[in-house]
TrEMBL record:
Family per record: Belongs to the UPF0758 family. YicR subfamily.
Keyword Hydrolase applies: yes
NCBIfam families: PRK00024.1 (NF000642), radc (TIGR00608)
Record-linked HAMAP family: UPF0758_YicR
Name of the molecule in the record: UPF0758 protein R4P48_16280
PROSITE patterns: MPN, UPF0758
Alphabetical list of InterPro entries matching this protein: MPN, RadC_JAB, RuvA_2-like, UPF0758, UPF0758_CS, UPF0758_N, UPF0758_YicR
Keywords: Hydrolase, Metal-binding, Metalloprotease, Protease, Zinc
Source organism of this protein record: Atlantibacter subterraneus
Lineage: Bacteria, Pseudomonadati, Pseudomonadota, Gammaproteobacteria, Enterobacterales
C-alpha cells in the first residue's frame, strides 16, 4: 500500500502564484509584504501577531508609530514599510478613479473615500462630481479645516459642478476624532448644499462622514 507524498509547505507566495492574489487571506498578504520574520518567529507568525494586535488591516495600516513600539521585535523599519504600503494603496485607488471614470457603487464609493480620508489629521471636505450616468468626472478636496471643524461654501461646490457640467455629486468629510456620527452642523450644511444644488438641477446622491474604521451614509440613514 503506497503512501501519498506529503506536499511541501505552501507559503503565501506559492499560493498567490497558483491561485491568484484574491485567494490570499489578509494575514497571508501581510506576510508577503513583510518578507521575513524576526528571530525565532516566522513571517506568518509575525503577520498574524500584527493583524491580531490591531484587529484589522485598516487598524494596522493607520496606526501611529508608538503603538508599534509596544510590540516586541517590531520596529521603525516595519512601521515605515507598512505606512508606504498604505500610501501606495491610496494612490492606486485615486489613480484608478481618475483614469477609469467608473460607475460607482455604494461599496466602491465608501472604500475609496475611507482610503482618502481616514488618516487625515484635520477635517477635509471632498466632493465627487459625476455625469448624468453617475460616472466619475472628477474628485476634489474642496475645503480643509481644523481638528474639529471645516468651513464649507455650497456656492463653490455648485460653481465647480457647473464648470464640468456635472449632473450629480457625492459629498464626504472626515472626523479626525474617529467617531463618524454626524453633528447637527454636518446635517445643516448638507441641507444648504442640497438646496443650492437643486436650484441648478444637480443631484446630491449622498454625504458620507468617515471615521476611523467606520462611516455614516446620509443616504443609508434616509436623510437624503
Amino acid at each position: 500500500m503506497s503512501r501519498r507524498k506529503k506536499k511541501p509547505w505552501d507559503g503565501p507566495r506559492e499560493k498567490l502564484q497558483r491561485s491568484g492574489a484574491k485567494s490570499l487571506t489578509d494575514v497571508e498578504l501581510l506576510a508577503i509584504f513583510l518578507r521575513t520574520g524576526k528571530q525565532g518567529v516566522t513571517v506568518m507568525e509575525l503577520a498574524e501577531k500584527l493583524y491580531n494586535h490591531f484587529g484589522s488591516l485598516r487598524g494596522l495600516l493607520s496606526a501611529p508609530l508608538d503603538r508599534f513600539q509596544t510590540i516586541g521585535g517590531v520596529g521603525e523599519a516595519t512601521y515605515t514599510q507598512l505606512r508606504a504600503i498604505a500610501e501606495l494603496g491610496r494612490r492606486y485607488s485615486e489613480s484608478w478613479i481618475e483614469e477609469e471614470k467608473p460607475l460607482l457603487s455604494p461599496d466602491m464609493t465608501r472604500e475609496f473615500l475611507q482610503g482618502q480620508l481616514t488618516d487625515e489629521e484635520r477635517e477635509i471636505f471632498m466632493v465627487i462630481f459625476m455625469d448624468n450616468q453617475h460616472r466619475v468626472i472628477k474628485h476634489s478636496r474642496m475645503f480643509s479645516g481644523t481638528l474639529s471643524h471645516v468651513e464649507v461654501h455650497p456656492r463653490e461646490i455648485v460653481r465647480e459642478a457647473m464648470k464640468m457640467n456635472a449632473a450629480a455629486v457625492i459629498l464626504a468629510h472626515n472626523h479626525p476624532s474617529g467617531h463618524s456620527e454626524p453633528s447637527q452642523a454636518d446635517k445643516s450644511i448638507t441641507e444648504r448644499i442640497i438646496k443650492c444644488c437643486d436650484f441648478m438641477d444637480i443631484r446630491v446622491l449622498d454625504h458620507l462622514v468617515i471615521g476611523r474604521g467606520e462611516y455614516v451614509s446620509f443616504a443609508e440613514r434616509g436623510w437624503i
